[in-house]
Amino acid sequence: MASPRLFTPLTLGGLSLPNRIVIAPMCQYSADGEGSMTDWHTIHLGQLALSGAGLLIIEATAVSPEGRISPWDHGLYSDANERALARTLAAVRAHSAMPIGIQLCHAGRKASSRVPWEGGGQLPLEEGGWDTLAPSAVPYSPGQREPRAMTTAQIEQLKADFVASAERAARLGLDLIELHAAHGYLLHEFLSPLSNRRDDAYGGSLENRMRLLLEVFDAVREVFPADKPVGVRISGSDWVEGGWDLEQSVVLARALEARGCSFLHCSGGGLSPDQRLDLGPNYQVPFARRIKAETTMPVIAVGLITEPEQAEGILVGEEADAVALARGMLYDPRWPWHAAARLGASVHAPNQYLRCQPRTLKGLFD
Q1: 180 pairs with which residues across the strands?
Q2: Which whole number is the average pLDDT over 90-99?
Q3: CA–CA distance, 91 with 50 (Å, rounded to integer)
Q4: At residue 1, does pLDDT exceed 80?
Q5: Could you tell me if residue 269 is left (phi over 0), alpha (psi between -120 and 50 degrees) or otherwise beta?
Q6: Which among 29, 185, 283, 331 is annotated as catalytic?
Q7: Where would I find the H helices in 78-204?
Q8: Are 266 and 299 in contact (CB under 8 A)?
Q9: Do residues 104 and 180 lie in contact, with contact meaning Cβ atoms separated by under 8 Å?
Q10: What is the tens place of the pLDDT at every residue in 223-237?
């Protein structure tokens, strides 16, 4: 009997995944204030690395201090950051062979925010906030401090920051890099005409608005090992009239593929509080479906994918090559085990847990 599609291998660039379940990046807002990982990350990533998924991607990781979403965000811009991440990776890798990637990010005008459990609004300067950067001096929402429109020199520094973080990721032996160009953060801000009102080489036409992301991709691809994948997460649409949309996403996807992009991770929204969407199961899968139809690189789908049969249907229907779970994986860190049980597949489990295999599922753990 053939394995369910969800539990067949997938290759991203030179990286082979045992199955098509991806643990999406999830911000924890639990770094030490200087951007370095703490014991929380060891516990958090450790449990996820025992889940049986095919790939774990570390949360949005800032390439500079001002690129953090909050003062407690993880970063990879200093030697201290690199040492802390090395300790966490050593602990996790001692007990799991799961491939581990990292998402590199700059939060742009959405930086300097409170943590979600404190409301998530913009952090005032007098409370430890900072002035933010953006393509243009257009705040995310009315009443917020205006971001500073980036100069050409600051754009060059941004590219250098992404390269430096990618070099640190390479030294740490991370298996994959994902560039965060979604959810209203800086690279997405350059893509969208709602946030990018520049009149230079980085604004105006679609070609110009894509320029920064493509240049960052090229620069990161050059310094990360050639046999390891570099991909991009995009928002397929701003869900706002006159904003970034799926047709522009297709053009971007083709341009990235031509540059050797290893995969595209298709999310949506996050750029504007005016977004209008119909929230429901698979609500972002149409982005992946269209990109997959228009390119040959692997595509990862997200969007309230919660049930094993639902995930299997997306893959069997050729809507995506892999599915990513975030909040659903936090709710059920053994989701891959339960999916394998429901679909009649086998999944990896650590030796210490083999005794928990149900008597009615003798072939569950491979």
Answers
A1: 233
A2: 98
A3: 12
A4: no
A5: left
A6: 185
A7: 79-93, 152-171, 186-191
A8: yes
A9: yes
A10: 999 999 999 999 999
